[in-house]
Write a structure and sequence with these properties.
About 40% of the residues lie in helices and about 15% in strands. By secondary structure, it is of the alpha/beta class. Helix 1 crosses helix 14 (about 350-365), helix 7 (about 205-215) runs parallel beside helix 8 (about 230-240) and helix 7 crosses helix 12 (about 320-330).
Length: about 400
Amino acid sequence: MKIAMLGNYAAYFIPRLMHFRQFLAKKKCTLIIIEESDNHRLYSFASADQKKDLERILLFAREEEVSLQKIHKRTRDVLNAINPDVLVTGFISFPFGAAGLRWAKQNNKAIVEYDNQKIETFPRNVFVKRIKKLLLRNVDAFLCPSESWDDTLYYYGFSKEQVFYGLNTTDNSFWAKPIRCSKFDFLPEDFFLTVGRQTKMKNLQFLMAEYNSYLKEGGNISLVMVGDGPEHDIIIKMAEGNPKVVFLPFQDPESLRELYGRMKALLLPSFKYETWGMVVNESMAVGSIVAVSSECGCASTLVKRGVNGFDFNPHKKGEIKKVLNRLERLSKEEEKQMKEASKIIISDWSVDRFSKGLYDAILYAHQNKKGVKSIFDWILIRLWKGRYNYKDTTS
């Protein structure tokens, strides 16, 4: 069976694709990755070197100006040449999801889509939701993170048999490797940690206000913030030169692994636009305590309150401060137990979960591919081009 995956794949997706390629090879299946370019406008790509073992086709040169029309035409031409048995794409809201659905239905091919947005993540009016329902009912199978997404997919008309799990995973074996050397001896012995692009959706201004309040009321644990972004200077100003707040630039995975292993706890205070939060997977695989906004996609699946961490309301003043105080008061034995709990919880969330979930979805789609439901659906599929979501949630 020949399988094509059509999308734009950020660095965190690469371990999944590498494992999936090996998984498929054992089943005598071929995997071809189709991407827009190595310099996509919305996603931070891994280097070409990281993807060297994947069979990839780039639709456009790095410098090429790309329109939705060009994406659809080039995608169609490449898929016609490859002629896969099953096509895997991202959500129909985006250009590749739309282009893939159109090609699959025109050529009687099975299609699997994946996504981690919930129905409440980006509020849409009734008309938009209805259009999405009509488009999605022509998709054969769907891969999502976990059962927490069932209500969303049932709303869009998928049956239980069409829904598969395991989207948001990482290479646990890499993150669990022992730390061989240290490059962060200058950091405090105890610190909370944030990691990621410092944007509005990360809610770091609110976190900093809560942390400042925590310090004023006697808190002692330092805060290390890794990353950069549009809100970086604002956060630095809010820290007011306090030596307990340390700012670090983006770090490579090996360095992050050390930071996860040394920290008191990971803090992820994001709003609901953080549809998962892969840093939680990574840090838990190291064996870390996590404190996560209840709006983050991973919170309902990976965070067990009082077991491996805590969740909190990202809007309610005082909740983060309360969690910081609870974390500071943990005994050494409690810390040890919670860290071990993280390892146990995340043990079922390595890349093999992704490969199995996606392969099962592909088999189901291949065996149960369906035609277009109606003439009206055909019109929608032909007209809908998808769009890039420039909504100001990340800037």
